[in-house]
Write a structure and sequence with these properties.
Elements lengths: L2 H22 L5 H6 L6 H12 L2 H14 L4 H25 L4 H8 L3 H33 L4 H51 L4 H4 L10 H11 L12 H16 L2 H4 L8 H37 L9 H7 L4 E3 L23 E5 L5 E3 L10 E3 L4 H8 L4 H39 L5 H24 L5 H25 L5 H24 L22 H19 L5 H10 L6 H5 L1
Antiparallel strand pairs: 1-4, 2-3
Helix pairs in contact: 1-8, 1-16, 3-8, 3-13, 4-13, 4-16, 5-11, 5-13, 5-18, 6-7, 6-18, 7-8, 7-16, 7-17, 7-18, 7-19, 8-13, 8-16, 8-17, 10-13, 11-18, 11-20, 13-15, 15-16, 16-17, 18-19, 18-20, 19-20
């Protein structure tokens, strides 16, 4: 059977499973819609959290990023996994004990202020939309390649699917759908890794295979270092980032994880505080399976790509290359007219994406009109395709190639659903119920939540069709925004009882504004007005991905300073802060 037939079969089967679960777990009340009725077991919640967390960026982009960045890509592994430890120890149990549905709800009540709640809602919307843009782009890439449809149609199909299970079931439907999606995505990620590891190193465990030897007795990583330096790239195992930038990016990703609203809300779906800790631990275990495999896949993919493509005649190139060429995610500009693909260091194109002309070249390849003639490199590869194309490059069976497509969709859709729920609860619960219409009925609030999901999906779809950058880069910036806005307000809200509303509001506004400004100027540029500023102009030598750390420090300094210069919070708020830090069941001993 062809890859396309296998893909249709697996996608239809997995989607039927998701729809079946969504219909079975329909939400009947706002509590079921927002936090699945608070009755999810730690094991199911751990799996759902892992699926919610491992987005298209983890599944599709992360190994691609590492395969191009080499050692420098390790910041994503350290930051994203380390953030979970922070979340489990510092935030999840206390927030669960405080007993609020959403992050803006916690901030609104802890800082006894609707202004603080509104600022938090705006921050939640900015973070969630930045994040969901990456997911929709991932959905578009998978659909466009494997079902041979245009990326725009891919995004539209993805939007429709998410709409069904988010609309019907809310958090209850999404939680149980995500358990199924975790099983699909982890199976889809690991099966090709086992195959390729066995094929290249004779060891079925990819984590061990990556450090093992290939058929001629050389170590795989040494071989990749040699291949890279021969082509003019830096050694794969050496880094080019400064120690400070590595630290800044890692910390921004860590505290960004701990401040992500769609992950925090997961800890309200379990019955007890103890279960919140348990499910955080289980989620970390489930996430580690994928995260320890990603560097191995990155090494396998990079080695296979160089060996298959470099200095190969275009007419002898394998079929997978031509398939991906049709999506515009891989492209060859024959700069010296020799019919061979020169893959060396340097930008193949003068702008970030290939611009194709109407006619085809003498070898049948699509001609590129924006080739950068100042470098010898003729190959453009979009990082987002490395995981998806990897099984084809390694000539694995068609069903494995199709399985990866189903896994990529599961990863993107599960996170998109969680994010859209955060957007809808921010609007329906934190804006409408808590501020605009306090007397709204349960039914009315549920309707408002569903309407806001519909609007959010349309906006997210537009982001997917007109994406800002490749998936993992966009997602990394969402973490910077969460670090700059939410993390200080939450952590100081739990551990500093002198922290008041004036401090929290000032900190959040300055932190998120600073991060947005830096992102626009140094990452995206002002569209059509100016290009992003060069790295030589970075503040404190900090990349846009790491700037969340600086914005967070500024937020903390402003929050603490302003709160000390203004009146202390009311006595009852200070007592709540004292109480949430006392472990459950310790109250009786405390009383004596």
């Amino acid at each position: 059977m062809s890859v396309e037939a296998w893909t249709w079969i697996l996608v239809i089967l997995t989607f039927a499973l998701y729809f079946g679960i969504a219909i079975w777990a329909r939400a009947g009340s706002t509590k079921e819609f927002y936090v699945a009725g608070g009755g999810v077991s730690p094991l199911a919640n751990g799996m759902a959290t892992a699926a919610d967390w491992m987005s298209a960026a983890s599944f599709i982009s992360m190994a691609g990023l590492i395969s191009f960045m080499g050692y420098d890509g390790s910041v994503f592994l350290m930051g994203w996994t380390g953030g979970y430890v922070l979340l489990a120890l510092l935030l999840a149990p206390y927030l669960r004990k405080f007993g609020k549905f959403t992050v803006p709800d916690f901030i609104g009540d802890r800082y006894y202020s609707n202004t603080a709640r509104t600022v938090a809602v705006l921050c939640a919307l900015i973070v969630s939309f930045t994040y969901v843009a990456g997911q929709m782009r991932g959905v578009g890439i998978v659909f466009s390649q494997f079902l041979q449809v245009d990326i725009v149609w891919g995004v539209i199909i993805g939007m429709s699917v998410v709409l069904v299970f988010a609309f019907l079931g809310g958090m209850k439907g999404i939680t149980y759908t995500q358990v199924a999606q975790y099983c699909v995505l982890i199976f889809a990620f690991m099966v090709p890794a086992f195959f390729i590891s066995l094929q290249m190193t004779g060891n079925i465990i990819p984590q061990i295979g990556m450090g093992g030897t290939v058929s001629d007795g050389t170590y795989l990583l040494d071989k990749l270092d040699n291949l890279s330096t021969q082509l003019g790239f830096k050694e794969y195992t050496s880094g080019s980032k400064t120690t400070w930038d590595v630290f800044a990016i890692t910390l921004a990703l860590m505290v960004g994880t701990a401040g992500l609203p769609h992950v925090i809300v997961r800890f309200f779906t379990v019955p007890k505080v103890k279960d919140a800790r348990k499910s955080a631990g289980l989620a970390l275990l489930f996430i580690a399976i994928l995260y320890t495999t990603a560097p191995a896949i990155a090494v396998f993919a990079r080695t296979n790509l160089i060996e298959t493509v470099s200095d190969t005649e275009y007419e002898q190139i394998p079929a997978w290359f031509k398939n991906w060429e049709n999506t515009g995610l891989i492209a060859w500009a024959d700069k010296n007219d020799d019919g061979k693909i020169q893959y060396v260091t340097g930008a193949a194109l003068s702008s970030k994406k290939p611009v194709f002309t109407e006619e085809r070249g003498q070898y049948g390849q699509r001609l590129i009109s924006n080739a950068n003639m100042s470098t010898a490199n003729e190959l453009y590869v979009d990082r987002d395709i490395m995981v998806l194309a990897n099984p084809e490059i390694a000539k694995l069976p068609n069903w494995v190639i199709a399985l990866v497509a189903a896994g990529g969709l599961a990863a993107a859709l599960s996170t998109a659903a969680g994010l859209l729920l955060v957007i809808s609860t921010s609007v329906s619960h934190d804006l409408i119920k808590k501020q605009l219409k306090p007397n709204i009925s349960d039914k009315g609030e549920l309707l408002a939540a569903r309407i806001s999901i519909l609007v959010a999906i349309i906006i997210a779809g537009l982001f997917g069709i007109y994406p800002p950058g490749f998936v993992a880069a966009v997602v990394a910036l969402a973490f910077g925004l969460a670090a700059a806005s939410f993390f200080p307000a939450i952590i100081l809200g739990i551990f500093d009882k002198r922290m008041n509303k004036q401090g929290a509001i000032a900190g959040m506004v300055v932190g998120v504004s600073l991060m947005l400004y830096y992102m626009i100027v140094y990452k995206t540029g002002l569209i059509g007005v100016m290009d992003p500023r060069p790295a030589s102009e970075w503040w404190f030598n900090t990349s846009p991905e790491g700037f969340g750390t600086i914005a967070m420090i500024v937020n903390i300094i402003i929050s603490v300073t302003v709160s000390r210069l203004t009146p202390a919070p009311p006595k009852e708020v200070q007592e709540i802060v004292e109480n949430i830090r006392i472990p459950s069941g310790a109250g009786e001993a405390h009383a004596h």
